[in-house]
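Glucose-methanol-choline oxidoreductase N-terminal domain-containing protein: structure, please.
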Amino acid sequence: MRTLSLLAVLCLAAAKLAISARHDINRYAVKRHVHELADAYDFVIVGGGTAGLTIADRLTEAFPEKNLLVVEYGQVEYAPGTWDPPKVVWGETGGGAGTWQLSSTPSPELNNQTAFVIVGKTVGGSSAVNGMVFDRGSRHDYDAWDKLQDDTHDRPRWNWNTLYPFFKKSTTFTVPPLEVVKKHNYTWDLSAWGNSTPIYASMPPFQWSDHQTVRDAWIEMGIHNMKECADGNKENLCWVPCSADPIMMRRSYSGLGHYAYVSNWTNYHLLVKHQGVRLVYPGGNPKAGPPIVEIRSVENGTLSNVTARADVILSAGVFGSTAVLQRSGIGPATFLKSLNIPVVLDLPGVGSNLHDHSGPVVSWNYVTTPDFHGPMPSDLLNTTFTAWATAAFNETPAQGPYTLAMSNSAIWISLVNMTADAPAIISRIRSLSNSNGTLYLPPEYGSDPTLVAGYRAQLSVLAELLGNPHAPSLESAIATGTRLAACALHPLSRGTVRLNGTDRLSSPILDYRSASNPIDMTLHLVHLRYLRKTVHTETLRRLTAVEVAPGVDLQTDEQLIKYIRAQTTQSYMHPCCTTAMLPLNQGGVVGPDLRVHGASGLRIVDAGIYPILPSAHLSATTYAVAERAASIFIEQWRK
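Here you go.
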C-alpha cells in the first residue's frame, strides 16, 4: 500500500463525502418534471455539460440571492473511465454514460467516407464520455483567437495571458507518489497548476511496458522531452495527465466537480430528461430579450416554457447549440426560409466554420515478439491477470492497468520543424487568404461576404501559426501498441451543421467536407512522412519493427495521398467553432463577451464559440473558457 499524502487523504475524504451525500443532493436539486420548477429564473442554461455546469457552479456561488436553472437532455448517471472493468480489450468502447453517436454526410475528397462523432448525452456532457486526455493548447493558439476579434479598447481579451489563470482555476493537479514518479519518470511544473477546483488532473500509477519504447524512439528522432506542457509552451514530447481522481482514478468530470461536489443548492435547479427546443422572443424581436426557452420532455414530448429574468446561456455543445438557434429562427436566412422557419435574426455564421482534428495512421508489426519485461494489453486475456487488475482497480488508492485513460504521452511538432517545404506551404495559405478564398468553401459561403471575410482572417492567423516553430501542427499520442495517429491540428477545410429538415428535434446534419481544401492534404502528407520515421528509428528496428501502414512500398506523394484518402479518420472527437467568437462582419455569432450578435439576453458558452481549433483535446480548454466566461458575466451583472 502506498503512503498517502495529506492532500491525497483530503481528496479521498472529499470524494467519499460527496458520494455519500449525492442521494440527498439529487433529492432536492434534480428536477424531472416541469411542475417542480420555479415560476421564473434569473439565469437559464440550456445544456448541462462541460461548460454549462461550470457556468452554473460559478453563478450560484457569485449570486446566492438569484436562482438558476440548467436544462439537460440526459440524466444523472455513472460515467466510467475510458475503459473500466470488466473490459479486457485495450481501447474497447461501450458501457459508458449516455451519448449521441453521429455520422456526417460523405466527404468526396476522402473516398466518400463519413466522419463518426461521439457527443455526451448526460449530466456532464462530453466530459463524461471523452478519452480523458487533459492537455492544454499552445499559447500561440489562444493568442490567435484574440487576433481574430475586433480591435476595440474595452472588450474582453481572449489570449493565453487572460486564459492561463482560468486554466489554473479550473483544475486541481495532484503530485503522484514518489515511487510512481521514479518508475515512469513523470515530470511536471506545479507553477502551471492552480489546485482550486475538484476537476482533477492526475498521472496514473501504471503504464504498459512498451510505452517507454515509443518515447525513446521519439527522443532518438531529436524530439525534446519537456518537463511540462501545460504552461503554454507546447512543442516536443509531453507528459499529459488524465482527468481522473488522484486516489480512486475514476473519471473526473463536470457532473462531479461542478455538480455533485457543489455545496450550496438552494438557488440551483437541474432539470433532466428535457430538451431545449428553441428560444422565443416576444413579437419575434431579438432586441426584446431575454428570450423565453421552450423545452420538451424527452419522456412524453410535452412542450413547456421557461422564463429567464437576466440571461439565457446556450451550452448545448457544438451541434446542440447550433440546432437550438436554427430552430429559433436565428441563423442563415436562406437556409431558414428553405425550411419555412420565420427568420428572427439573420446570422450566417450559425452552423458554419465546422472543423475537427483528423488524420491518417502509421502502424507497424514486429518480426519477432519483443519481451517488454512487464504487463502488456494481451495479458488481459489471461483470467488470472484480469482478476488481479480488477481487484487492484478497487484498491485505495487504485492500482493497475484500469487506472489508465487513453494516453499520457504525445508529441506536438510544428510544421517548420517537420519539413523544409514549410515556407512554400505557408505561402500558399497566404495567397488563398489574399484571394477571394471561396473556391474550397461550402457553397453558401459564396453568397455571404461576411463568411468569406471571416475565413480569410482565419487563414491569415493560421499562416502565422503554421510558420511559428513553437506552434504545433501535428499531434501523435501513444499508450501502447503499434499504431500512431498523425493528427492535423489546424485544418483549413470548413464544413457546416444544419437542422434536419425532416425531423427538426433530432440530431442535425453534419457536412464535414474534410480535405476539401487541398492544402490540408499537403499537411497530412507532411505529417505522415514525419511520423513514419518513428518506425525506422534504431530503437524500434532493434525490436524488429516493420512498417505496415502506409507500408514501405508506398513512397511517392501520389501513393501516400491515395493512402491518406482511404485511411484518414475525419474526427478525433474534437468538433468546434460553429457559433464562432468573431466580429459580425466576419461571420461571427458571438462577440468577446459571448453575447449573440443582435440578440438581447442571449449568450453561448461551449466549444462552438472557438474561432479556430487549439492544438489540444478540447476538455481542458472548454473548462477554462467557461471559467473565463463566468468571470466576465459576473463582472458585468454586478455592474
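Notes: The first helix runs from residue 6 to 29.
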